[in-house]
Every structure is written in C-alpha cells, then in structure tokens.
UniProtKB/TrEMBL annotation:
One of its GO terms (cellular component) is membrane. The chain crosses the membrane at residues 71-90, 97-120, 126-146, 167-187, 193-217, 290-307, 339-361, 381-402, 414-433, 468-486, 492-508. It is found in: Membrane. It comes from the Eukaryota. PROSITE patterns: STAS. One of its GO terms (biological process) is transmembrane transport. CDD domains: STAS_SulP_like_sulfate_transporter. It comes from Rotaria sordida. This is STAS domain-containing protein. Keywords: Membrane, Transmembrane, Transmembrane helix. InterPro entries: SLC26A/SulP_dom (IPR011547), SLC26A/SulP_fam (IPR001902), STAS_dom (IPR002645), STAS_dom_sf (IPR036513).
C-alpha cells in the first residue's frame, strides 16, 4: 500500500488518469508532451495567432455562429424575430410601468439589449430585455429616490425643478443600469461566473414567487384606478393593502372594467384558445413546422387605445393613460456620477438576481438543445448590455422566460433573432409610438398580471420540496416571507444566508447509519426504506455521508460510537429471528467496516479525530476495516 502511494505521488501534476483493468485501480499517466516544461510554457504562456483568434472568438461569440450560419436558418430566425418583436412592444411598455419610467423606455429596453447581447452572448436563444422581477426592483429604487427628494424639498426648501433635474426617473435608472453592469463586468473579469451554484433552485423558486406577489401588489392601485402613496421599507406590502382597502370607495369603475376585461381576455386566449389554435394549425401544411402564438397582448393594447381615443376616457372618466410616448431616440447622455455610490447596495442585488435568472435560463435551454454556454462570458455579456444601454436611457435587463420559450418553439437558431426583432422595433419607436399615447394603463396592468401566473404558481413548489427535504423547505419559506415582509433586497440577503446555513447543517450533522444486506446480497441502508435489511453476524458496516472536517469531526466520533452501542441492542433480536440462532453479546459486532465512499475529503483536524475514533474502537475490542477509500 505504501509502495502504491509513493508511486502515485511521484507522478507530476499535469497528468491524466488511465484505467488498468487488471488491478482495477486508477493510476495517473504522465502527459508525454509536457515532460519538458518548455513545451508547456510554449503552448500555454506564449501568445500566438491561434491563441489570439481563440480569445477573440470567445469574447465575440457571434463570430463563431456567423461562420457556420446556414442560409436555411433564415426563415426560422426571421419568423421568430418578428414574433418576438410583437411581444416586446406590449411587455416593454408594461414593464416600464412597473419600473416607474416612461413607456418609451420600455421600447428602448426592447431595442438596445438584444443588439448588444447578440454580439457578446453565448446563448443562441435567450431573449434579453425587461422582465417583471428586475423591473420591480428598479421601480423600488426609483420610488426610494422620489420619496427622498420629496423629503429634501421640505427640509431644505430647494425648488422642485432643482430636485427633478438632479433625481429624474430616467437619470436614476440610467445610473442604476451602469452600476449593475459595472458590477457584473468586474465579477466576470475575476471569473465569478460560478456564483449561481450557491443559488439553489429552492431559493430561486421562493424568491421569484415572492417577487411575483410584490409585483401583483404594486399593480393593485392601477388595477382599481386608485392613487395611493408610494411606500418603501419593511412591511411595505401590509401598508399598501391597508391604504388600498381604505380607498376602495374611490375605485374608478371604468378602469376596473378595463383591467378585468383585459385579464379575462388574455387569460382565456392563452389557456384555452391558443392550445386549440396550435392543434388546428398542425393540420395546415404551410404551418405544420411552426406554432405562431396569438399576439393577444398587442391586440388588447390596440383595442384599448382605440376605445380610449374614441370615447376620451382620460378627460371624461379620469382613466389613467400613457399620455406621452414620443418617437425617436434619446441622445446618449453621461451619467450623474454622484448617484453611483448611492446605488451600490441595490445594484449588487439586481446584478446577482438578473444574472442568476438569465444564466439558469440560458443553461437549461442549452442542455435541451445540446450546446454549451460559458458562465463567465454570459456574465460579461450581461454587464456590457447594462453598461452600453445605460447611456441610451435603459434600466437593468435580464432574460425573459416567456420570450425565450417562444423563440425556441418557433425554431429560432441564433441571436440573429434579436437583431431582427430590434429592426422591427425600430419602426415602432420612430413612427408608431405616438399613436399609442391614449392607451389606458389598465391594459398594461392586465398584461403584467397575466404574465405573473407561472411565477405565482411556484408557490406550489413548497409542497413538493416539503416531501423531499425539511431543510430545503426552511430555505423556501424564509426566502418567500422575508422578501414579502422586508422587501426584495433584504429577502435576497436572508435567502442566501439561510441557504448557506442549510449547506453547513448538511455537513455539520450528516447522516450516519448501519448498512445491511437483503436477499439479493446487495448492501443497503438499514432504514425504513429497507426494513428487511439484515446485518451480517459479528460485522457492523457503517457509513458516514460527509467529508470529515474540523466542524463535524466530533459528531463523526460520537455518531459512530453511538450507532455501535444502540444498533447492537436493537438488532440483537432481529438477528436471532433471521439467522435462527443466538448471537452472543461479546461476539456481536466484533468487526467494524467503515464505508468511506461518501467521505470525499478529510482535513487535518478531521484526520486526527478519524484516527482517534479508530483507536477507541480498537480499545473496545473492535477490529476496524476501511473500504471504498476515495
């Protein structure tokens, strides 16, 4: 054994593993090319034309798919781009309302980010732009500055024009987007693309479900046509509903009718008519390979705009409308640099959440469609999107599940889809925008509420998670309620902290159990899942399912000794009945086999305790054997 260890330690680090079937062990085999360190330095440290091309292709992924682009993909990308642009129009303006910025900013969010991401992103299908969660977080930042500026007016008697010049909504979101992008770019430079591994699916589920509740709450005033005070801070949601119920008598019935009608129309089409429509078009040979969704959101916007213009809903019935959209683009502007330090805390939260949502979406579709996305390059792409787009009036962007799924279902092949959608949105921004100014805000509220249905349904995940693991249930519940009660920033912190605590608890008090055999002679855990498992005479097989570290070493020692004491008593009668003979107490468990297959690592302190445990077992006349050593 010592000779084998010395032989294995003699191999250099730059080696590969080779399987030797005769001895059934893995041994390292030296890479012959790199026996000479000069070859390694030449291939890995000295710049070359190949290295430069590789770096350029990695930083500009569009160069790779452009080289292999098939002309036959154009119809798919064209159809997908046009369809996604239609969705962008309705969702862009709706999410702009959620972010408390002018509707035209929502159209900018649908135009600029897809263009930038097409150059730097590695995913072929994600649709980047405004999404509900990030729009809500942006709106909270805008509200906090609006309230702060109002209090400043009272305290310092500064004129309202001065405050608005300093803290204009668009100025705030531009600075926020720049700060978010800068944080993401710095993280990508230091190769922090792996941070999403610390955000479990349970955490993401609880966080998105809670933010969906907050988004729904934020739309209630416009749903009823009631004006209430903007609130921030702890228990914000409670105060909003209290004030909302107090003012229910002020409900604008026309606004309420538009909201309810829009929700019923969109939901009915999405849930009932569209599935029937998709089944029907499969019978039409011209459409049998694609499934074009019904643009019901755009239809609701058009109908609402026409009715509002014809019946003068704003002037006659006090229905809130968009009022001003304008056309054309804003000239690029420099940021109010003094705002950047004030936005760091919120920017960190938005940077992490937007990256986690976007990358998980990109990774899932990449796995389904059999290609690879680069975590660090994705982080860099999102950062560059936010930085560059911030100069044109955009707020932080992220990938949308709804738009991405449409892109995949329609057979989109590359990010040419984003470029095509931006071209069609250019027409809307330059020509069509002012025609939508009479549109009631209630139409956008209906679009937002229906778009939340899948996120709100994540509340059901708690029942599935609860049946699997109790600790993960704690993560979901703590994330969900802390986000609702404390707001999105603090909910993010609480959720991440609880997730880390759960990970520590898994290793601090891991499972330790006795193994037995079934009639198939396979070794199984003697638990409620294998109630028929039996121990071998005079043998105890123990498994500890965790690395042995300084913080759980004592638990390893205590749990092993406790199992030997308890199991010998509880299983004695069972052994007698199975083997139909008496097992003497002194002979029971004289051999202990420690299954080390789950012990992936032992640190210095853990090693000392491991040796101490073996010595204690020897003192109790146990013969200890180790198997499945890593």
């Amino acid at each position: 054994m010592n000779d084998l260890s010395e032989d294995m330690n003699s191999f250099p680090n730059n080696s590969k593993m080779k399987y030797q079937s005769s001895k059934q062990i893995f041994v390292p085999v030296t890479n012959e090319k790199y026996k000479n360190s000069t070859n390694y330095i030449k291939d890995n440290c000295i710049p070359s034309n190949k290295c430069a091309r590789s770096y350029i292709n990695r930083f500009f992924p569009f160069l790779t798919w452009l080289q292999y682009y098939d002309i036959g993909w154009i119809p798919h990308d064209l159809l997908c781009g046009v369809t996604v642009s239609i969705i962008y129009i309705s969702q862009g303006m709706a999410y702009a309302l959620l972010a408390n910025v002018p509707a035209i900013i929502g159209l900018y969010m649908s135009f600029f980010p897809p263009l930038i991401y097409a150059l730097f992103g590695t995913s072929r299908h994600v649709s980047i732009g405004g999404i509900a969660v990030i729009s809500l977080m942006t709106g909270n930042v805008v509200n906090s500055f609006t309230i702060e500026s109002s209090s400043t007016i009272i305290q310092t008697n500064i004129t309202d024009n001065t405050i608005r010049r300093d803290y204009n909504e668009v100025t705030i979101v531009m600075a926020l987007s720049f700060t978010v992008g800068l944080i993401q770019l710095i993280l990508s430079i230091f190769r922090f693309g792996f941070v999403t591994v610390f955000l479990s699916d349970t955490f993401i589920s609880g966080y998105t479900a809670s933010t969906a509740v907050l988004v729904l709450t934020s739309q209630m005033p416009d749903f009823f046509g009631i004006k209430i005070q903007h609130r921030t801070g702890f228990f914000k949601i409670v105060y909003i509903y209290i004030e909302l119920f107090k003012r229910l008598r002020e409900t604008n019935l026309i606004t309420l009718t538009i909201s309810i009608s829009g929700i019923i129309t969109i939901y009915t089409v999405k849930e009932y008519l569209e599935p029937y429509y998709k089944r029907m078009i499969k019978k039409w040979k011209i459409f049998h390979k694609v499934q074009i969704p019904i643009p019901i959101e755009l239809i609701v916007i058009i109908i609402g705009t026409i009715l509002s213009h014809k019946f003068h809903l704003n002037s006659r019935y006090n229905v809130k409308t968009i009022k001003t959209i304008g056309k054309g683009f804003r000239a690029p502007e420099w940021h109010q640099w003094k705002l950047l330090p004030l936005l760091v805390k919120e920017s960190i939260s938005i940077a992490i959440v937007s990256y986690a949502i976007s990358y998980s979406l990109a990774k899932n579709y990449a796995k389904q469609l059999n290609y690879i996305v680069d975590a660090n390059q994705e982080l860099s792409a999102y950062g560059l999107c936010n930085i560059i787009c911030s100069f044109f009036g955009c707020y932080p962007s992220a990938s949308s599940l709804a738009r991405t799924s449409v892109c995949v279902n329609l057979g989109g092949r590359t990010q040419l889809v984003g470029i095509i959608s931006s071209i069609f949105l250019l027409i809307t921004i330059l020509k069509i925008g002012p025609l939508l100014e009479p549109m009631p805000k209630a139409c956008l509220v209906a679009i937002i509420i229906v778009s939340l249905r899948n996120l709100l349904m994540k509340v059901r995940d708690i029942f599935t998670i609860g049946r699997v693991t109790k600790l993960e249930t704690i993560v979901w519940i703590s994330t969900f309620f802390s986000t609702i009660i404390l707001d999105v920033d603090y909910g993010l912190i609480v959720g991440i902290c609880v997730s880390f605590i759960v990970v520590i608890l898994y290793h601090f008090r891991p499972r330790t159990f006795v193994l037995g055999v079934l009639d198939d002679n396979q070794v199984h855990n003697m638990s409620r899942h294998y109630s028929n498992a039996r121990e071998l005479p005079n043998i105890k097989i123990l498994r500890f399912e965790s690395p042995i570290m300084y913080f759980n070493g004592e638990y390893f020692n205590d749990s092993i000794l406790k199992l030997l004491r308890d199991e010998s008593k509880t299983n004695e009668k069972k052994l007698d009945s199975v083997n139909e003979k008496f097992i003497d107490d002194d002979q029971n468990g004289t051999h202990v086999i420690v299954d080390c297959s789950a012990i992936s690592q032992i640190d210095y302190s853990g090693g000392k305790i491991f040796i101490q445990t073996i010595k204690e077992l020897n003192d109790h006349k146990y013969k200890v054997y180790l198997c499945n050593l890593p």
